[in-house]
Amino acid sequence: MENNFSGSQPYLSFEIDGELYAYRISQVVEVIDMQKITVIPKTPAYIMGVINFRGDILPLIDIRKECGLDCEKNFDFKESVIIVLEINKDDLENRFFVGSIVNNVRDVIEVKPVDILPVPNFDNKINTEYTEGIFKYNDNFITILNIPAVFSIKKNTNKTDY
Question: What pLDDT score does 6 carry?
Answer without folding.
Answer: 66
